[in-house]
Amino acid sequence: MEERIFKVTDQGNTKIKPLEGTYEIAYKYKNEEEAKVAEGAVNRGEAIALAGKFPDVDASKEFEYYALKVTPTGPKGWDAYASKTKVVPALPPKEGEKEEEVKLPFKGDTPTKEDLIKGMKERKVAKYDELKKKYPTKLEEAKS
Amino acid sequence: MNIDKKFRREAPTETRQSLGVYFDREDKHLAYLDQNRDEHVIAEKEGTVNLEVGTDAGSSLVKTSTTYNFGGVEYDTYRLRSWAFFNTANTVQIAELGYIYISNGDMFIIKNSSNIEAVDFNGVVGGYTNTPITPGALVDDATDVARKVDTMYLNQDNTVGSFPQNYNFMYIVGYDAAAFECDVYIDVEFIVEKGETVEFVVS
Question: Which domain holds residue A54?
Answer without folding.
Answer: 2-107
